[in-house]
Design a protein that fits this description.
By secondary structure, the protein is α/β, with parallel strands linked by helices. The chain has two helices and 16 strands.
Length: 166
C-alpha cells in the first residue's frame, strides 16, 4: 500500500484524537483546537494547550503543557509555559525573556531559543522526518499488515471449494 493510500487513515486518526481531546477538555481553561491556531494573550492564563494541525502562540501563561501535532509553538516575549512543550512535525521558537518550566521535545522540526530565554528542563530535538516515520509509520504499517492478514484468512476460509475432476 502506498503512502498516499494511508494518508486518509492518518488524517482520520488525527481527527479522532483531536475530537476526543475536545470532548475531555476541562472547563478550567484548557485550550484544544483542530486546524485553528491558538493564541494565549498577554493577560491570559490557561491550563493546557493542545493543537492538531495548527500552531500555538504564547504571549501569556500556560500553567502546564503545550502539545502540538503538525504545527509550531512560539513563545513570545515574557510568555511562559509552566510544564513541557512537545512538537510533532514542526518546531518551537522561544523569543527573548520567554520561559519554559519543563522539557522541550521536538520530533521532525527545529528548535530556536533566544539566548535571553530560559528552559528549566532538557531540550531534545529529534530532527528529520525519520522520527515521524518511526512514530507513526511503523505502527500504522504493522496495523495494516495485521488487517491484510485477517482479510486473507477470511477470504481463504470462505472461498468455495472446487470439486476435483477425474
Amino acid at each position: 500500500m502506498r503512502f498516499a493510500n494511508r494518508l486518509p487513515v492518518l488524517a482520520c486518526l488525527f481527527l479522532m484524537v483531536g475530537l476526543s481531546s475536545l470532548a475531555f477538555a476541562k472547563a478550567s481553561g484548557d485550550r484544544t483546537q483542530v486546524g485553528h491556531d491558538i493564541t494565549i494573550g498577554p493577560d491570559e492564563e490557561v491550563s493546557d494547550a493542545t493543537c492538531f494541525g495548527c500552531s500555538v502562540r504564547v504571549l501569556g501563561h500556560v500553567a502546564t503543557d503545550v502539545t502540538v501535532f503538525g504545527g509550531n509553538i512560539v513563545v513570545e516575549r515574557q510568555g511562559q509555559i509552566g510544564g513541557d512543550a512537545v512538537v510533532f512535525g514542526r518546531g518551537i521558537r522561544l523569543d527573548k525573556e520567554a520561559r519554559v518550566g519543563g522539557d522541550i521535545t521536538v520530533f521532525g522540526g527545529q528548535v530556536r531559543i533566544d539566548p535571553a530565554a530560559s528552559v528549566a528542563g532538557d531540550v531534545a530535538n529529534f530532527g528529520g522526518s525519520i522520527w515521524l516515520l518511526l512514530i507513526f509509520g511503523v505502527p500504522l504499517g504493522i496495523l495494516g499488515g495485521i488487517i491484510t492478514l485477517l482479510v486473507w484468512i477470511v477470504r481463504r476460509l470462505t472461498r468455495p471449494s472446487v470439486p476435483a475432476t477425474a
